[in-house]
Amino acid sequence: MGFAAAVLALLAVLGLPPSGVAPAAATSPRASPAQAPATAPAAKSTARVRVELESVTPGVARPGARITVRGTLRNLGTDRIDAPVVRLHRTTTGLDTRGAVASWANGSSQIGPGVQIAQRVLKTPLMPRATLPFTITVPKDAIQTGYRFTTLGLTLEVHRGKGVDAATVGRLRTFLPWDSAPASDHHPIEIGWVVPLTLPAEPELFGPESDERAAAWERALGTGSRIDQLITATTDEPVTWAIDPTAVEAPPSQNEFQSPTAPPTTTTAPTSTGSSSPTTSGTSTGSPTTSPSSTAGTSSTSEQQSTSGSSSSSSSSTTTSTTGNSSGPSSSGATTAPSSPPSTTPGPAPTTPPPPSEADLLSDQLADRLRTAGGTHPLWALPYGDPDLSALLHLDPRGATLRAALATKTPKSLGKRTRSGIAWPIDPRLGDKTVATLRGAWRGHGGLAAAVISARALDGSSGYTGSAPRKSAQGLPLLAYDDRLSGIFSAMDDPAAGGAAVQRFLAETLAVYQERPANSRSLLVVPPRTFQGDPTVLRQLFAGVDRAPWLRATSTDTLLRQAEKAPKVKDRTLTGKSAPSAPGSLTAYPSAHASPLTTKRLLALTELRATTAGVSGVLDPGDGYQSIWSAATDQLLSSRWRTRPGAWRTLEVRVVDANQAITKGVSVVSSTFNFFADEGSLQLTVVNDLDVSVRNVHLTLAPRNPRLRIIAQPTPLRIGPHSRTTVKVKVNAISAGLVPVDAYLSAPNGTTLGSGTSVTVRVQPTSTWIYWVLGIVAGLILVIGLYRALRRGGQRPTDPSAAEHIQEIPDP
Question: For residue 356, how far is the Cα from the chain centroid?
Fold first, then answer.
């Protein structure tokens, strides 16, 4: 169907002229059908009055019946119209086919307006931009015709004056079914109805409780809402309600960072710093001392740790220079501070859970209302959140995403007539290849009972209107809704066009009946999920259907049983395409908007779920974080966002922002360390700037070069709100040098918290410099020994034998 044809047909069902009646089309998106002139081209029309048909009573004419037509004239121009005259004509030729009905509605019919059967002169002038009601009564014998049953075309014309040559300023085409046959002569068509009760595309419906969220749920479920009006209008009618379980089981909305039971507050002091004791010759003592102190927010944790030790070779010392929002550790004397065990202060006693939210109250009221009416109404529980089956099957043909969507939540029962397992793709292009995927996805969730699709999406049309119960080649029961009737039904949200829409609906069904009046058939009417439905117009329609002898109401339970027994006929298989509509057909069923879901966005949603789960893993379970934001993420798969793609993005951003508010609230303080030891501990400070405590926070250190080795990563941390803690990490020095170390925080599932930090460690292990010192000492000893040896070598040695040859000389 081309765009121009779609626009033309939509204007026809809504009562707008295809052209010529210029102000009418520009002023109102919906009006009663066929406001085009009957005999003259629409482009030559000078009409400036829109005719709005309120009702035709009775909607089906019978011999001797007095017909009353009520409506409103709306002056769309700037001229005053004095004493407007309303004339009513009927055709002398019946409109016995759906094509003839459609062409009459859109103004392309070659059948003339026929004979005038009534006239009404309005004494009140019609002022510019004003309205004027009118009523025309048709004499009893004015409708007599030779047909047993047919549809007559009616034309309402508005003239400026009584004269024959008076200008026509407005025109409306509508229908009047005629039936003079006894009721026993009819073999009526069974007709079933499905009315969707789904939530609007409002991102404010999901997330933590707030005034904005409460107002959104009031608009969705409160008095006067679309769902409230639909239930009110159809409570006494044989319709099936297709409910999104989200409407009766509101997603959790406990306030962000609110916990029914406060957890204990735990502060952990470090136990010790590292020390080194290399086994080399010599004796030395050392006293590395670290004393970090920091404050953040309203609470602080200060720690002082010293370690002394002696060995035969060397000592280790660690000094730290810290940058950021905390002061670094400083050295002190050789003292030892005993380790402090974790201290636990019991939190407050468990508190009373918060009262139900506005959404909970409204959804519970709706559930009770549906249960009460469930005895007379079949209920279809769609998958929770009403996931976009068409988009998910297209983007993920294997069905993994769809299976995950179906497993989100099992809809609660709303009564014994509640039925799940009904697939209703928003896009009628459901191919045979996807049926197996649908069945596989529903396996484990009660099984797939049937699929609701467009009759135009079925192959093998015989030229006649088919029956609603079908079966695919794979044996899946199908309920095929009539697009044209469903389109007319979906237009019944405007009281100004309601009367014309009701008459068009009756004319269409009579044309279907006339195709094969002796055959048993059934029709299904399914409006789109955005169906508004004016209660007054709907009551008028159902009253007209009750009086139509060629129609008989039935339930979808009956249609499903018929579909289960239907034979597998190959020419009724799913084509995966929308069949082209016949020329002149209504085609008023709203086309599905493009889904905001894409392959890239599905992958992003998978990551978003993982992030949400990771963030919730570091918060106390009572905060309800995961239940709130995971439910909001699941709703992003819903079909409702097709009507408002921008709202889909709004909700996604809200979830992302909620996660980032947590992940950015926990960080590691950037530091610089001087590490003079073979083995010891690095002390890092982790800060929690959130209003709640965090738990199970994993700190991981990753040196960028092998000069430093992490002996053991620290155990998971728990940090109070607006607090910080010092973490000791045991390391081993391999060789001297500057070592950048990446420090990052993560949740138990690996979700990164914060942006990560790099700390710098100047490594100088004792195993390097101690040997230099010993070597120097050994060298000095060697030099001194040589020096002393050389000094001894400069004296003459004494020879004992020389004393014997000394001659003594006596004194003179």
Answer: 23
pLDDT of 139 above 60: yes
DSSP-derived 3-state class of residue 23: helix
Q: Is residue 310 within a helix (H) or strand (E), and if so which, with residue range? A: strand 309-311
Mean pLDDT, the chain, rounded, equals 78
Q: Dihedrals φ, ψ of 96, to 5°? A: -100, 0
CA 236 to the chain's CA centroid: 33
Give the pLDDT band (50/70/90) at residue 687: very high
Torsion of CA 209, 211, 215, 220, to 10 degrees: -10
CA 387 to chain centre: 8
Give yes or no for residue 461 having a pLDDT over 60: no
Q: Rounded CA gap, 52 and 95, in Å?
A: 22
Residues 295-346 pLDDT 10s: 333 333 333 333 333 333 333 334 444 333 333 333 333 333 333 444 444 4
End-to-end CA distance of the chain: 160
* Reported pTM: 0.75
Distance CA 511, CA 151 (A): 8
SS3 assignment for 695-710: EEEEEEEEECCCCEEE
CB-based contact 526:428 (threshold 8 Å): no
CB proximity list for 567: less than 8 A, separation 6 or greater:
471
Q: Are the C-beta atoms of 504 and 518 separated by less than 8 Å?
A: no
| Residue 393 to residues 113, 398, 401, 452, Cα–Cα distance (Å) | 49, 8, 8, 15
